[in-house]
Design a protein that fits this description.
The structure is a homotetramer of 320-residue chains. With 320 residues, the first copy, chain A, is an alpha/beta fold. Chain A has helices at 12-22, 42-45, 77-84, 111-119, 129-143, 172-175, 189-200, 234-244, 290-304, and strands spanning 2-7, 27-33, 57-58, 68-71, 92-95, 107-108, 123-125, 151-157, 180-181, 208-214, 221-228, 251-253, 269-275, 279-286. Chain A is 28% helix and 22% strand. Chain A has a seven-stranded parallel β-sheet with strand order 3-2-1-4-5-7-6, covered by helices on one side. The longest helix of chain A is centred in the middle third of the chain and has 15 residues, at 129-143. Chain A starts with a strand and ends in a 16-residue tail after the last helix. Chains A and B meet through helix 6 of A and helix 6 of B.
């Protein structure tokens, strides 16, 4: 059994990591760290874990008790923690914050496109949720050097994407029965996406026009990507997607455009690709907390530990 | 035109008061008071009031500029404010907090049952939202001295009932797709309801078993009241309800049990009364922000000013 | 008083027309027609109209009893009805279906841009809901001949846009907590929009890439329009929008991007315009049943009858 | 591996059975029967099963290819099917409709209270969803002969409880942001509950006053049970609940009243028991499709096959 610690175990993503890890057949969850919930039992903090009463939240991480450490803290906290600890180079660290994405010494953890470097690494920067959905739609085009024109992207996220702290825009009275736009053309995931594309496509391209929306649902991201390219060869493009995900246990290319309930509470990805007279239209659906965060983190963990990529990730979908 | 001030104009109930008052044909809204929003324009604080850009929130109430003052502050604040001001006895004060309900010097403002005292009063304590729904179901029985056995009450409220401050239980991620119970058998509206019943029914009765629930909708209260009384005469009971609301412009007795969309965004009340073999079952639907707060406050204002009771309250229902 | 009939009064849009017309100070609603609901009382079919018990649904329209007729039937039915009736040229007909949009003998009823022809007409084809939102975002650009590049449009509609018949995609279990795409690049409103633009802009332009989405809310449309135009002069563009809506009682240009709750249950329109380095980004929010259907129909009715444009349309917003 | 067939695999409950069975380590799903979906692939009918493309829906059940048959058809169909087939007495049949509940020759499949007869049986009538939630709250009292007074019950169900056929009350536009009551005092599960109680409690009792509600959520039932019993000994009552569920892998007695997200997408049950001055108040939360249908069916299957009771039922909760 691999000994695992979760730092930041009280948040949404930390909670999902715990739910996955306590059911993972090759894992022993040895520490759950949360400054705010120290001393509380797991089922007090996550009341759906009704039958998990014994495990207690601790305040400080003890790296000697873990082979692998998942960091699920707010942005900015991971770096501080790592500076304060002496970590063996052998310890696997998977950071789910944006602190180390495309930073030196860290490997970007999108396994569908960077499995080889992930296999060699002990420091994984897990991708952002919007960034995951959008990259899974763009990188198959980048692989065949096909990104030439501007991509117009609208992606809508569930409320869990904004974290657990209650705010004006996560207030039920405001968000329910509503739809809104935020950080138009200025979302921090844009540069994360472009860094990946620069790794995969030979020719330079950075034409993203990204409009993020807040949806009145809890889980999931639906990303719609429009690129005008009248010369695109439809068959070749779809072929490119099929090839890109040929060996992926999670990604499916669907004939009709996907919706969020197809992937909710799973690590799956549904992608549709349509070529119209002028445009290519790509739609991607993921669960933001799983494929967009905790699920991919476990997937990276499995790969690095030479376990089946989907071990502990064959989840019953919620659907309805 | 009657000059009106709203204190606490930034909250949900304050906002509803403003929406009603700016469209009221006999009102001039002279002051909107909010400590937190001082200096802001109305449409900044309530962005649905797109075309109301000039009115500015003020910090301090000036009683000389208003004939009537609506207090829509958090519980506890009204009393402090009144102690700090010199108010003419002629000024009409309608307090929507629970500070003055059934307190000396104040008239309880449920117009369907206390119109006479309201007409004589300049100090109105507006009823609570749950209390309104439940009283409208119980008081017709009290009027005919018919409350003898225990009333088992379940009432479910929309999220706006809990106010605008974001909290764990008003977080969209938690409240959406959920249902929960709070303050079972200990909700503060129980004693408010009983005080009314003691006014209306001659024989003493205080057997309320009240379970409040938080629903995953924004507006509305549905109250279900079960009372075992095998000797009840069905026709007489329904007769009592029809008589109680004979002259009410807002209450309708419906043949099928009401739902929330029947009354949403209106000052209306839908009530069904059914007599089963052992039990009487009464269901009441109201909009918690209107009939349960701001709407009844305007209704009281109209009555006291000898205006038609429904002036400014004939609202287009939202329904869907 | 102007005598008015509503044909198709049992549907969502028909219901909204009735709610507006029974409160309209210059209207007497003389007939409500529905084949399926013949003989039923208004409050049976629309149970929110609790206090409107006397008006009865009729089966056949009697044109002699109405000065104005609103047609709110499914697409295809209006034409049949008109063929079967002898209508005086003086009768005002406002057809809310898509049967007569941009058809000969009919005037396209988007009053913000075609008020002069509407004033002269007795046959009004009321715009579609998506078409309304998108045109309100594009036509100010068309007016100054500024549409040169492709417009990438994502618009999300509430469930009432799809009508009252229960279907798989309007089933609560499916639609709740979900988001989906339909009729990508093939929505029937595209040609309606282009016909308008061809009227307003001198130079030919027809580059629309439109992705419609189904949102998990009931009312409202949020349309996001992205157009790459690096040479656009920001001030001039915003000036164009302000000028286009200078005299409109309903449209507001907002500084932050609008959301649906700003306009819910009103005839208002909120529009934001932002110019980024390469792109113009326009966001439009409307209520699909009001500004996108029944509200604009009443607005047209007011204009043609020389009444104030917003008579009967100053509605209390629902907001929450 | 045990060969299993699902009849009625296209509905909500059938879908849940399939999701559970394809991940069950001791099951081979050999047939999926649906008259309406014959010839379609599993992922066409249940598009969340993205990676299950090969299994095809069949029209007719072949009992020789299955050791166990789950019947998830509409009420009334199971009986017909069984009359038309020759089934070996050795075949295990688990009927999830209400056709055989408390019928001769069939065992009522609520394993928390009837495990012994279930173990001996090959014909299981799986309990109804409301009946499951309410019995789990009442039967611990019945076991100690403590049901003497009337039980006032309000239980709210998610939309999946009403099945997949779209209807007026499952229409998103109507159900969203709404709450309604149906079949007050006349729900068919009342007699099912009473039959169980008559098995468990020695003294006769049939005083149920049950108000079912339709909630605006998709999954889950919250049942609130109020019983006046001033003589009840609090400690003894809680002791009775703890004892009743002592060996249950799924039921937890919680200190605060449960909510639906605690059990969503799991086979778990959360129950709170509070004794007030006059009343006992019991609250039960379950997932209607799992513990209220498919989950309990698998639990019965496990018991009868001498497998661990929770095999294939340790599901990742959805929570948010």
């Amino acid at each position: 059994m691999i000994k695992v610690a979760v730092v930041g175990g009280a948040g949404y993503i930390g909670g999902e990591l715990i739910r996955l890890l306590i059911a993972h057949p090759q894992v022993k969850l040895t520490q759950i760290i949360s400054q705010s919930q120290e001393g509380k039992a797991l089922s007090e903090v996550h009341p759906d874990l009704l039958h998990s009463k014994d495990q207690i939240f601790e305040k400080d991480l003890d790296p000697t008790r873990a082979d692998a450490i998942f960091l699920a803290q707010p942005h900015g906290a991971a770096q501080k923690l790592l500076e304060s600890l002496e970590l063996s180079d052998d310890s696997l660290i998977i950071d789910l914050s944006h602190d180390h994405r495309w930073q030196q010494g860290w490997t970007y953890g999108l396994p569908e496109f960077f499995k080889e470097p992930i296999l060699q690494s002990k420091r994984i920067a897990n991708p952002g949720c919007f960034a995951t959905a959008i990259q899974l739609g763009l990188l198959p085009l980048a692989k065949t050097n096909s990104l030439t024109n501007r991509a117009y992207i609208t992606a809508v996220t569930g409320s869990t994407g904004a974290g657990q702290s209650p705010t004006a825009t996560s207030h039920f009275s405001w968000r329910h029965n509503n739809l809104s736009i935020y950080k138009s053309y200025s979302h921090q995931h844009e540069s994360e996406i472009l860094s990946s594309i620069h790794q995969v496509q030979e020719t330079k391209w950075n034409q993203i026009s990204f409009v993020p929306m807040r949806g009145c649902f809890t889980r999931g991201i639906l990303a719609s990507i429009q690129i005008t390219n009248p010369k695109a060869d439809k068959n070749q493009i779809i072929e490119g997607f099929l090839e890109a995900y040929d060996t992926s246990p999670f990604v499916a290319i669907t004939e009709t455009s996907p919706h969020i309930k197809q992937v909710s509470n799973t690590n799956n990805v549904a992608i549709s690709v349509d070529c119209f007279e002028q445009d290519i239209h790509i739609v991607v659906a993921i669960d933001n907390l799983l494929k967009g965060a905790a699920g991919t983190a476990i997937q990276n963990f499995n790969i690095i530990n030479h376990l089946p990529e989907d071990l502990g990730l064959q989840l019953k979908p919620t659907v309805y």
